Amino acid sequence: MILDCAIIGGGPAGLTAGLYTTRGGLENVVMFEKGMPGGQITQSSEIENYPGVTGEISGMDLMMPWPEQCQKFGLKHEMVEVKRISKDGDIFKIHKEDGSISQAHSVIVCTGSSPRRAGFAGEDELLGKGVSTCATCDGFFYKGKEVAVIGGGDTALEEALYLAKICSKVYLIHRRDSFRAAPNTVKRVENSENIELILNTTPEEVYGDNMGVVGIKVKNSDGEIRDIKAPGVFVFVGNDVNNQTLIQEDGSFLCDVSKQGDIIVDISMKTSVEGLFAAGDMRIAAPKQVVSAAGDGAVAALQAISYVDEKLN
Ligand code: FAD
Ligand code: NAP
Questions:
Q1: Ligand 2 within 6 A of CB of 185
Q2: Whole-model pTM over 0.85
Q3: Structural domain includes residue 125
Q4: Atom of ligand 2 nearest to the CA of 151
Q5: Within the chain, which residues score under 50 in pLDDT?
Q6: Of 80, 108, 204, 219, which residue is most buried, by most CB within 10 angstroms?
């Protein structure tokens, strides 16, 4: 069977694409998601800028009803990692981790982005043993203890605020003296009693023993080293686009990408390849918000419906 549409990734963009394609009349639509649907926002402790959703809500709670809403209209979810998307004539091939291949008339790729490594000594070795990229997942392990947070964007500051509610103290380490995060978030951090700002400072080395992380050595712009004893080190230094599924056997990309690897689309979420759409955080100039990822998913889905209708009728 050839699918009408294959959706790769089940975050806000993929789930919205799934809702609109199925509700809009496409018959065989499968969302290929390697884990639980919901995407990276499920790692967020609090989201307060999704329209119409007031009060404190976690990313997990926000996303909980989305898959059920899509399934009601016929979206199928295959829990598998997609290795590669290729095109043979006018049919797309979805190469999966288990070696099997699905075929589709159209593809909406929404694989989002992944946390970047800061690149200091010990970071990789101690990842999962005290070094973390998810405060909601790991914050509780450090209840009543001191932790360090690296970064100066929205994620670092919001997660520092979350950790400050659980931990006795949060050291927020940022390489500059001003933050990228929203001004309101910066104000909240500055007013927090148990967040210490360590600015113009970069991590040198995280070190530990057989129990996990013991502390982190940081260096300021005067070259002074400070040793911070903290069993938890949370790294929030941005994200890289997950574009690996578009890399072909010869190393080229299936469609045009920017120098940074973002997928180039027009305002209809069309890529340079007919029938292939990209939506959400992975597309060029993405605002990297749940609401915009969902909007992209809807736009891409409406375009995929027109493309398939024209192709098959
Ligand atoms: P993602 O959410 O990244 O989803 C991509 C999905 O694709 C994932 O589920 C992944 O498992 C899957 N996938 C990847 N590769 C493959 C593959 N090869 N095969 C199968 N599946 C694959 N935004 C806001 O609007 N407000 C906030 O308050 C906010 N807070 C945030 C806090 C944190 C900690 C983080 C990390 C992000 C936050 N964001 C926030 C940003 C928001 O989460 C993203 O903009 C949004 O999730 C992007 O959605 P997406 O669908 O494009 O991608
Ligand atoms: P980001 O905005 O790219 O910020 C990354 C931070 O890490 C920057 O402060 C950067 O420093 C620092 N950094 C980068 N590499 C580093 C390194 N090697 N060592 C030390 N520090 C390093 O990433 P983000 O905070 O994850 O946010 C990603 C996107 O999601 C943004 O568009 C953001 O607005 C959005 N987001 C929105 C919300 C919200 O709306 N509430 C919440 C979370 C995320 P410099 O500042 O010096 O570059």
A1: no
A2: no
A3: no
A4: 7
A5: none
A6: 108
